[in-house]
Design goal:
Elements lengths: L2 E5 L6 H12 L4 E4 L11 E4 L20 H10 L3 E5 L1 H8 L6 E3 L7 E9 L15 E8 L3 E3 L2 H9 L3 E6 L18 E5 L5 E4 L17 H10 L1
Parallel strand pairs: 1-2, 1-3, 3-4, 4-11
Antiparallel strand pairs: 5-8, 6-7, 6-9, 9-10, 10-11
């Protein structure tokens, strides 16, 4: 799989993203600057990493969602290419029209940085085949605006069409109460596009790929993608 990582002014996880992709695919991803207008040839996956693109001015991801490179990202997605947006990348995908909904301020109006369990809602996509449905994995979260919200019709469609990728849960996979760190609607931590080729998620799987640095529960996502190529 050939991957590209988009870097915006204020991105700070592009190095982590590149390391995770290289570990899973065996080749270093291309690095693409926000002001570029085209992706490299023969790219299978575009990853939008975490950070504070453009200083989070206006809204998180609002300016980045309209950056020059995003036309190429939208065209890539329209062709059926894979797109992964993590944390600020998820916010950018929503602002850029690739995924529905919005990421609001956390329920307690505080930045959250901690380990968090997620429940895998389906294990039959190219992002999730190395997991089991219902599996509780542990990854890192680090965000101030991770509270996923959408109108009732959108939530009903996401649930009805099984487009929720991950939910916040406890170590036993139970959803609700204190297991939801930010007040996200239906404990949603990540969602898919209609064709299951675009995934946006607030948690950071790229930080959980090394047993010496927190664990390896994030590795399955990148290995799933590598196997899909």
């Amino acid at each position: 799989m050939r991957a590209a990582v988009i870097t915006f002014p204020g991105s700070n996880r592009e190095g982590d993203a590149a390391r995770a992709l290289k570990q899973a695919t065996g080749r270093a991803p291309a690095h693409v600057w926000h002001a570029d207008t085209a992706l490299p040839d023969n790219i299978d996956l575009v990853m939008l990493p975490g950070g504070f693109s453009y200083g989070d001015y206006l809204r998180c991801g609002a300016i980045a969602g309209r950056a020059p490179i995003m036309d190429a990202v939208r065209a890539h997605a329209a062709r059926g290419g894979y797109v992964l947006g993590v944390c600020n990348g998820f916010q950018i995908l929503c602002e850029g029209g690739l995924l529905p909904g919005v990421l609001l301020r956390n329920r307690d109006l505080r930045f959250i940085c901690k380990m968090q369990h997620l429940r895998v809602e389906r294990a039959d996509t190219d992002f999730s085949r190395r997991y089991r449905k219902g599996q509780a994995i542990e990854v890192a979260i680090a965000h101030g605006e991770g509270n996923y919200e959408a109108d009732d019709a959108t939530i009903e469609r996401l649930e009805g069409e099984h487009l929720v990728a991950f939910r916040y849960c406890d170590a036993n996979g139970l959803v609700g109460g204190a297991a939801n760190p930010n007040g996200s609607r239906n404990a949603i931590a990540g969602i898919y596009s209609d064709n299951l080729r675009v995934l946006g998620m607030m948690p950071h799987p790229e930080n959980l790929i090394d047993p010496l640095v927190g664990g390896t529960d994030g590795r399955g996502l990148f290995e799933s993608l590598a196997a899909a190529a």
